[in-house]
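We append the chain.
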Amino acid sequence: MLKLIQNEWMKLWHQKATWVMLGILAVIIIGAAGLNKYYDEVDSRDWRIVEQENVEMYQGMLAEEQNASNTYWQNELTISEYRLAQDVAPPNGMTVASFMNFSVQLISIVTLFTVIVAASIVSSEFSTGTIKMLLTRPASRAKILTSKLLTTFIYGLFMIAVNFALTWVIALILFNGNTGTLLEVVNGQVQEVNVLNNLIELSSLSAGNFIMSVLFAFLLGSVFRSSALAIGLTMFLSFMGGVIIMFISRYAFAKYIWLTHTDLTQYARDGHHMIDGVTMPFSISVLIVYAVVFLAISYLSFTKRDVTA
């Protein structure tokens, strides 16, 4: 199995598209950092005056908002009052911690790149005719498909590691001189933001969309042997899935559709799902069931169908 994975890994990096995707990721990170640095405005005023103005603004917003949506303004008011009372200065401009949050957002870009690999890693063997040579090896078809699937996930994890590492290095270079303390309200209490814990939590919750998108693209690529169909349909569902679920959320069957549960970040910081009565254990259980179904169809299609033609 290890030799099969090594072979798939080498084939993957012999493709120009793989290097292009890595370059695009680097350009996005460097470009975003450069823009933030260029447009980063440092307020020369005393931060206490600014926070006092913020307190007055938030109080005004709360006076206007007489519904549940005022929770955001209440939290902002609580933080500003805490800063003034405890003499805790806010960040003055972009900091390493605040820019690192950008790396979590980029997981969606990494997911897109991994989907491209998942969709083409099987279908490309048929389009180029190399599937005949591949199947002459003593390894079973199941092992061959497993090596391709594992290689796809290894590539995705590698890109995520590059994303976090490069973002951190660039943030240290450009924003390490900016000081201040990020605060947040958790269960009604003001506390300093733990950047590392936030990154781990949000990254872990992003795994739902990452894994299911890759498995779905892998399924389509294995069954229909068309990378274009796999990439297009997976991306359509990824970007439009939220809209689709919003329209059908009134129906009971919506909670049993895998698209409803891919965005596990809804549960961050004790959050709740968009559909009432849905919990994180239930969401994870639904995703596991669909993941097993996707894998079963992929393996049955690859191992049972005539793939020598």
Observations:
- The chain has one domain: 2-42+92-304.
